């Protein structure tokens, strides 16, 4: 802040200053607060992640991206669909490696004991030894976190969503205190740019859950396969991540190799399709995406249908510059210091 006396003095002197100095003086008055010494940094975006981590490896890439994004304040990670205890072990070990035991874990609704391709990575990890909080009722933890937030929270969902359906049934008021962002569906294209929409996994596994999400009165934004199904890192972009010495990225690649099983050689050449990273990007300014407001309905088989009479949601339907998004990912993943790292 410039005092009144200094202001008058500067203005009186302005006539004797060269042109470039006049510009500098004027900038003192028009500079945004973020450029003024001592100004508070921009507020972080509060986020809850609901994930079926442990099946497709892209959830692990997405959680790592969240941890590498300094704009995001990750309030809670809840595990969803199937064996949620197995999923919670992956989350716990990854957060442990990242030094982020300040982030609590909520174990979501469990429906089976099946494990996925990352089971070997956590076979010796005891979730009871996670230094942070672990909530056995993940749905309650999710509701409590949303209701306790002084500002609207972003609910980021990247898997089938029985947790969210149940949360809306228990506490429908959460929809007025959160915005919904997720990776769901297929509108005009399938994965890898295929010119035919398909029933997408996160929707078709629990159509009723996704319908409950569509019907909730929150602001809703999704990345369907049309966009997220095109994301894969190859060549030098992937090599930059593969060669990193960052402990979190090393853990990510360990997970990837484990998940690939007998196709582990692929881990030396390229990433998997990074579907869920596009949902993380939607939480941030996402200028590289083409956005459309579309009325969406879901058929019983999980197929999405554009319906002008349906409630409109924000859909990322194409990329303006996919290569630039890949560059963004590489910069984020390889930045040297993790934000908010706990010693």
Write up this protein.
The chain has 343 residues and is of the alpha/beta class. The chain has one domain: Alpha-Beta Complex (Inosine-uridine Nucleoside N-ribohydrolase, Chain A), CATH 3.90.245.10. Helix content is 37%, strand content 16%. It is built from 13 helices and ten strands. It has helices at residues 4-13, 19-30, 58-67, 84-98, 138-148, 162-170, 201-204, 207-215, 225-228, 235-242, 247-260, 277-283, 322-334; strands at residues 45-51, 72-79, 105-107, 134-135, 153-157, 178-183, 220-223, 289-298, 304-306, 312-319. The chain has a ten-stranded mixed β-sheet, sandwiched between helices. Helix 3 links the parallel strand 1 and strand 2. Helix 3 (58-67) packs parallel to helix 12 and helix 10 (235-242) packs parallel to helix 13. The longest helix has 15 residues, at 84-98. The chain is globular, with a radius of gyration of 23 Å. It starts with a helix and ends in a 9-residue tail after the last helix.
């Amino acid at each position: 802040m410039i005092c009144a006396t200094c202001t008058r003095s500067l203005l009186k002197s302005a006539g004797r200053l060269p042109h470039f100095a006049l510009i500098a003086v004027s900038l003192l008055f028009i500079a945004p607060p973020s450029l003024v010494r001592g100004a508070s940094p921009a507020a972080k975006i509060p986020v809850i992640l609901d994930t079926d981590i442990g099946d497709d490896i892209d959830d692990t890439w997405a959680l790592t991206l969240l941890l590498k994004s300094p704009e995001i304040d990750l309030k809670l990670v809840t595990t969803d669909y199937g064996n949620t205890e197995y999923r919670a072990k992956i989350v716990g070990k990854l957060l442990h490696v990242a030094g982020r035991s300040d982030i609590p874990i909520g174990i979501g609704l469990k429906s089976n004991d099946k494990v996925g391709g990352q089971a070997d990575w956590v076979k010796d990890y005891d979730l009871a030894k996670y230094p942070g909080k672990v909530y056995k009722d993940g749905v309650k933890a999710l509701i409590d976190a949303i209701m306790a937030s002084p500002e609207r929270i972003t609910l980021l969902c990247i898997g089938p969503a029985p947790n969210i359906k149940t949360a809306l049934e228990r506490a429908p008021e959460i929809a007025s205190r959160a915005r919904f962002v997720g990776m769901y569906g297929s509108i005009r294209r399938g994965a890898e740019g295929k010119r035919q929409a398909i029933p997408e996994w996160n929707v078709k596994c629990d159509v009723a859950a996704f319908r409950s999400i569509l019907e909730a009165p929150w602001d809703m934004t999704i990345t369907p396969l049309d966009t997220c199904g095109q994301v894969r890192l190859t060549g030098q972009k992937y090599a930059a991540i593969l060669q990193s010495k960052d402990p979190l990225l090393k853990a990510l690649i360990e997970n990837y190799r484990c998940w690939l099983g007998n196709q582990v050689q692929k881990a030396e050449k390229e990433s998997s399709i990074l579907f869920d990273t596009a949902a993380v990007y939607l939480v941030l300014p996402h200028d590289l995406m083409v956005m459309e407001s579309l009325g969406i309905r879901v058929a019983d088989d999980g197929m999405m249908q554009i319906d002008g009479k349906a409630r409109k949601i924000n859909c990322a339907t194409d990329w303006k510059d996919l290569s630039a998004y890949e560059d963004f990912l590489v910069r984020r993943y390889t930045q040297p210091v993790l934000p908010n790292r706990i010693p």
